[in-house]
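Sharing a chain and its predicted structure for anyone who wants a worked example. Both blocks are below, sequence first, tokens second.
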Amino acid sequence: MNLAENIREIFEKRDQSKNIQLISGHKQLYKIQMRNYYLNSIGGIKRKQELNSTFSRTISNVIVPFLALTDYHFEAVNYLHKEGGKNIKWTFAEGLSFPHYLFSCNKPEEFELLSDKNIYSQVLKHCQKISGTYSSLPRLPSVYLLVMLTFDILAFEVFTSFICSTPALFDNPGKAVEIENLSNLQNEIGVGLYSKSSFFKNGTFYAMFLGYGKFGDNICSVFEYWCDESKVMVTENDEDASRSRKGYSYYSGRICLDVMTGLPVRGTMLESYIALQNMPDESETKKVPVHVRRNVNLELLDSNY
């Protein structure tokens, strides 16, 4: 049997059930790199920012077999403001924790249970703790970057949950599938630091099952995803909207999920963020154009370490 026939057989015999393995106490260590390139009006790079971090995810409470609460912990965060420069250790970020959740629903009744009053209240109470993590921090550029990195981490977790809850992806390799529950999904991004009116609203979200691959020692299912024209609004506080940023995000990438656990092994994201920043002056509010090209890379380092 040749290679092409072997691969074809793998796809024909693939497991259609793609549940995430949710085991209370299970812990994984990741590294994530975020690079931001601030561009001028013709696309040249004006300024660079780079954050490198290691963080852990612990599955803290399995509420039902397809839904678990999770906790994340920054082990180390280092900032690099120029190529060839020296890493600056952000000690204020070390030890910070924030909450979220993972799920994999392959049946309509499981999705319905997510909105069950008792289950939803447990998830909501858990996730609201994120405000306590960041509300005590000052509104500084460094903290804004850390919030950005936090949402990048959570984005890969959200993508994982919804990919593993979309059987149509696995049924149609090589075909773009809209994940309707992610399309037009709006999330508050104030996290107790900025106005509650700050939000990120997805455009239409698509994903595609590309096949299988190997990353390190892990055999993975490989997916491509993309989402265009997502709306972004950041306001410093509810009383004064003069300092705000409004624009659009266009992002795409790939994510590799372990075929045994359904958990992410590798993730990439490339994002273009275009906005107008309101900058109040003595006489008027100036609107300053902002164009940021972002490159994010996630990688699993260890499990149950």
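Comments welcome. The two ends are 40 Å apart (CA to CA).
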